[in-house]
């Protein structure tokens, strides 16, 4: 797919802080339609079926009233990166019985109990300790959960995730955790305005997935590639993403810089 010539040489990461706020159901409808249209265009450029890519709207830091507008505009799955924030939102919106939650941020073992109670998906699995903690709590809750293994494709110390070389051995351990349904791999690309550098991260994740697929243990699925966010999801789709995690392009800019979510700040590459 990378043989198709890239339409852009730059990402939209430098637009950070400038995405307009969605303040009505109509705004959400408009933003969702715009993102879906761009996703479909990216699919067409590389001959992919638009139905093969799922949009995960990311609602972190936004208040309950805003999330309810997103729901009214049709969102039935929301991504959050802080387990406790997500848990409180789930409790507050328990009346929306068909609203599901995906946790996309790093998890500490002592927070596994929150995630096991309500999340339908966890995209940032990167240690056996967390796998074990989730498994224990899911057994208690009598639930299962879809999981993605997070891979550090950028080499940045600030990014969570396994080194690509460690993923094969990690996957071999996962069948022991019967409540975890492994669906694929997840990554965050380098945060750069240079499309080429961002694209390399996505190519790396897809290459790794393609190699590991041959030898994946029974029950470990590697069909999914979660990669791409507001600034770079079209590039991710061109390189094979099956899930794009999009926050600001749907909800509007967040008040805090991304270094708040992916510490330490000093390690983040600015555009
Ligand atoms: C916040 C976040 C996103 C979405 O980023 P936007 O710039 O808002 O699109 C994607 N993935 C992860 C892991 C995140 O924490």
Q: What topology emerges from the helices and strands here?
A:
Layout: H1 25-45, E1 54-57, H2 64-72, E2 77-80, H3 83-92, E3 100-103, H4 112-118, E4 121-125, H5 128-141, E5 145-150, H6 167-173, E6 180-186, H7 195-213, E7 224-226, H8 233-238, E8 243-246, H9 248-251
Parallel strand pairs: 1-8, 2-3, 3-4, 4-5, 5-6, 6-7
Helix pairs in contact: 3-4, 4-5
Bound molecules: pyridoxal-5'-phosphate.
Q: What does this 3D model show about the protein?
A:
The chain is an alpha/beta fold and 271 residues long. The chain has one domain: Alanine racemase (TIM Barrel, Alpha-Beta Barrel), CATH 3.20.20.10. The chain has nine helices and eight strands. It has a six-stranded parallel sheet. A two-stranded parallel ribbon has the order 1-8. Helix 3 runs parallel beside helix 4. The two termini are 25 Å apart. The relative contact order is 0.19. The site of pyridoxal-5'-phosphate has 15 residues, from strand 8 and helix 9.
Strand order of the largest sheet: 2-3-4-5-6-7
CATH classification, class level: Alpha Beta
CATH H-level superfamily: Alanine racemase
- Report how far the terminal alpha carbons are from each other: 25 Å
Largest sheet: 6 strands, parallel
> What is the approximate shape?
globular
Number of strands: 8
> Please, how many helices?
9
Instruction: Give the H and E element order.
Output: HEHEHEHEHEHEHEHEH
Indicate the CATH architecture. Answer: Alpha-Beta Barrel
* Radius of gyration, taken over Cα atoms and rounded to an integer in Å: 18 Å
Uncertain runs? 1-5, 264-271
